[in-house]
Amino acid sequence: MSPDSSRLGRITVLTNPASGHGGATHAAERAIAQLHHRGLDVVAIAGTDVDHARRLVEGALDRGMDALVVVGGDGIVSLALQVLAGNDIPLGIIPAGTGNDHAREFGIPTRSPEAAADVVVDGVVETVDLGRIVGADGTQRWFGTVMAAGFDSLVTDRTNRMTWPHGRMRYNVAMLAEISKLRLLPFRLTFDGEELVTDLTLAAFGNTRSYGGGMLICPDADHADGKLDVTMVQSASRAKLVRLFPTVFKGTHVELDQVRTARASVITVECAGINAYADGEYVCPLPVEVSAVPGALRILRPAR
Fold this sequence. Notes:
Helix content is 30%, strand content 34%. With 304 residues, it is of the alpha+beta class. Strand 1, helix 1 and strand 2 form a beta-alpha-beta unit. Helix 2 crosses helix 3. The protein is globular, with a radius of gyration of 19 Å.
């Protein structure tokens, strides 16, 4: 870590207007006002969709910036990672989404845009790992938190197909529907070349500890160790799976008999008919190779 943020001058702020049910725009206004107050030169951009936002960021990079600050949830962070991975430009986060798992990992305030903006000015730059997904279909994607495959990706598939109800309730209804159809899924995995063929409910591959708004699915993951933590759940019992979910918020699920863990730098994941999601976003169908890439991102976080 280094206190490089003290030398920041020109900042690009990217907003996802849809984040936080529209609250990101207000959060951006407050954060930008604070950054101006702290003496920074701010260029504000807002994408109408993912492709538009990415083009705006790439154009801003060409013009030059000292940091990219994103306002929104993990989706807009994910977009920034695709551009900043392997780049020297640090990433700042003004959390304004529903999950904010990147912000949680790095101790960035989630309730005050002004406090998060102060982290951009006063914080330190930490160099951290990113996850990298390469799909058999040619997809390549960076991620910061967790890649998920299995039951939780089936729930997200169903949620995305639904038009009603709205908000978190849609996810809950989709989860109940998938629990009613619960079955073990045939996975084939390799961990740094060691093969494991097993039936699982779900598998999660964590560069960081949490996904889904604070669920500590990989509670011992370290974002700077060059490895991914893997959590594998093996339960065909609906009742046991329902009882397991509350323990995930504490990270104590890894102590249960139906859960096992692993740690590796490069992992291959196969399971027919299952999609991979990372940072809450659809990536591609399995099979994939997922790996930890050391030092791929520089991020602004509070000084300890």
